[in-house]
Write a structure and sequence with these properties.
Number of helices: 3
CATH topology: Peptide Deformylase
Number of strands: 5
Number of domains: 1
Strand content: 25-35%
Shape: globular
Radius of gyration: 16 Å
Order of helices and strands: HEEEEEHH
Helix content: 25-40%
CATH superfamily: Peptide deformylase
Bound molecules: nickel (II) ion
CATH architecture: Alpha-Beta Complex
Structural class: alpha+beta
């Protein structure tokens, strides 16, 4: 398995819209495994393909403490079952050091395909529901910073740009 490079804000590639996956082959399996490995290495609970510069509708999520319960989600869409807006405080591997409170639907029904291309459904609320909504935002080019004030967004942009410049020099 390979550790993939995670794009960080304000990289414009994070704004690309991911396309529908039509081939459920070994290549897809490998991408999914590399993404899962990368997510575990970076101690994330969810990762969207967009974040590793793969612009296809693929997400990996694992909320388990011992990292033993991954869900591979291909071509996701969801319906809101309960549109009560709950406030979820979220971070993102593509926006290090940043946290943002985001309104998320309380309960959703996710429709997706597994890595074999079989259709699946999942009813999700709480952290799993928020995580799915967060990762689908990524596939649509939407980021946590979009929920922040322009002042806060400007600050984190400046901070991360400086961090990146420092890395390139060092
Ligand atoms: Ni994220």
């Amino acid at each position: 398995m390979n550790r993939l490079n995670i794009l960080t804000f304000p990289d414009p590639r994070l704004r690309k819209k991911a396309s529908t996956i039509t081939s459920f082959d070994e290549d897809l399996q490998k991408k999914a495994e590399d993404m899962l490995f990368t997510m575990y290495e970076d101690k994330g609970i969810g990762l969207a393909a967009t974040q590793v510069d793969i612009h296809e509708r693929l997400i990996v999520i694992d909320l388990s403490e011992d990292r033993s319960d991954p869900i591979f989600i291909v071509n996701p869409s969801y319906e809101v079952l309960d549109d009560t807006q709950e406030i979820s405080k979220e971070g993102c591997l593509s926006i290090p050091t940043f946290q943002q409170e985001v309104p998320r639907a309380k309960e959703i029904e996710l429709s997706y395909q597994n890595l074999k291309g079989e259709s699946e459904k999942l009813i999700a609320d709480g952290l799993l529901g928020y995580c799915i909504q967060h990762e689908i935002d990524h596939l649509n080019g939407k980021l946590l910073v979009d929920y922040a004030s322009s002042l806060k967004r400007g600050r984190i942009k400046e901070k991360l740009t400086k961090m990146k410049d420092g890395k390139n020099k060092g």
